[in-house]
């Protein structure tokens, strides 16, 4: 299966830690990438590969992976981290077709 | 740094062909080993990958859209384009273009999209 499943919504208290998970068979073969999307804006890459952050992404964002599950952790969540988060990976078809997760709405309380 | 910008009609009639162009600035579309992808997002819904093109012209498409999608590249204009035929209201969405990375690392493959264009809304309606 090339599907990637995420919890629809999670909430976190300001300054606390939240983990967002992404499950799918393709994650056994590919690292996930993670995107933050705020209302009315284009998605922004926050994590790719084993645990790589693009320039400008705060170090409170980190990634990990185990088996068929990838995780994005926000340590010390800030109000500006409230957004939708999507994982992405490639399928196992041999052509590395791309697939996005279902998305997780993160609310910072 | 590389920037992407989508352009094209914001309104398309049902059964017609949606056509969009992504212009790459700040770098050559042919430099580096990159793919170039189209992604869309219906209002209030998640992201859907449409397909990608390499500067050699080789393409890969989402199987659910493959019969209706054509992606092409014009390296002389530093652009790549999307055509989606026989559109219906279900194709109404914000369409994004993005640079698509795929590399081998630590015995596995890593893919990611960066940067993205700002997106353009295409509405299918008569």
What does this structure look like?
Chain A is mainly β and 109 residues long. Chain A contains no helices and 11 strands. In chain A, strands 2, 5, 6, 9, 10 and 11 form a 6-stranded mixed β-sheet that branches. In chain A, strands 1-3-8-7 form a 4-stranded antiparallel β-sheet, with no helix packed on it. The mean pLDDT of chain A is 94. Chain B is 0% helix and 56% strand. In chain B, a hairpin with a 4-residue loop joins strand 5 and strand 6. Chain B is an all-beta fold. Chain B contains no helices and 11 strands. At the A-B interface, strand 4, strand 9 and strand 10 of A face strand 5, strand 9 and strand 10 of B.
Briefly characterize the structure.
By secondary structure, chain A is mainly beta.
Radius of gyration of chain B: 14 Å
| Uncertain regions spanning at least 5 consecutive residues of chain B | none
Question: What would you call the shape of chain A?
Answer: globular
Distance between the termini of chain B: 39 Å
**Shape, per Cα inertia axes of chain B:** globular
Q: Could you estimate the helical fraction of the residues of chain A in percent?
A: under 10%
Largest interface: A-B, 26 and 28 residues
Q: Hey, roughly how much beta strand do the residues of chain A contain?
A: over 45%
The major beta sheet of chain A can be summarized as: 6 strands, mixed
What order do the SSEs of chain A take from the amino end to the carboxyl end, as H and E?
Answer: EEEEEEEEEEE
- Look at the helices and sheets of chain A and give the structural class: mainly beta
* Spans where pLDDT lies below 50 across 5 or more residues of chain A: none
Query: What percent strand of chain B?
Result: over 45%
- Report the biggest beta sheet of chain B as strand number plus sense, adding barrel if it closes: 7 strands, mixed
């Amino acid at each position: 299966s090339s599907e990637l499943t995420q919890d629809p919504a999670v909430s976190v208290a300001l300054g606390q830690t939240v983990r967002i998970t992404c499950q799918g068979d393709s994650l056994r073969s590919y690292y996930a990438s993670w995107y933050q999307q705020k209302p009315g804006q284009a998605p922004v890459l926050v994590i790719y590969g084993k645990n790589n952050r693009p320039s400008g992404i705060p170090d409170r964002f980190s990634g990990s992976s185990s088996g068929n599950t990838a995780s994005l952790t926000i340590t010390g969540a800030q109000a500006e981290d409230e957004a939708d988060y999507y994982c992405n990976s490639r399928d196992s078809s041999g052509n590395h077709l791309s697939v996005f997760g279902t998305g997780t709405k993160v609310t910072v309380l | 740094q590389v920037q992407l910008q989508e352009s094209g009609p914001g309104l398309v009639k049902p059964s017609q062909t949606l056509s969009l162009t992504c212009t790459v600035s700040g770098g050559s579309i042919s430099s580096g080993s990159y793919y170039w992808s189209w992604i869309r997002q219906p209002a209030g819904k998640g992201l859907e990958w449409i397909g990608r093109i390499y500067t050699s012209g080789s393409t890969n498409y989402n199987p659910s859209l493959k019969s209706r999608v054509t992606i092409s590249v014009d390296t002389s204009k530093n652009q790549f384009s999307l055509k989606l035929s026989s559109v219906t209201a279900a194709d109404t969405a914000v369409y994004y273009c993005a640079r698509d990375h795929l590399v081998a690392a630590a015995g596995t493959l890593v893919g990611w999209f960066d940067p993205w264009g700002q997106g353009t809304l295409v509405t299918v309606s008569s």
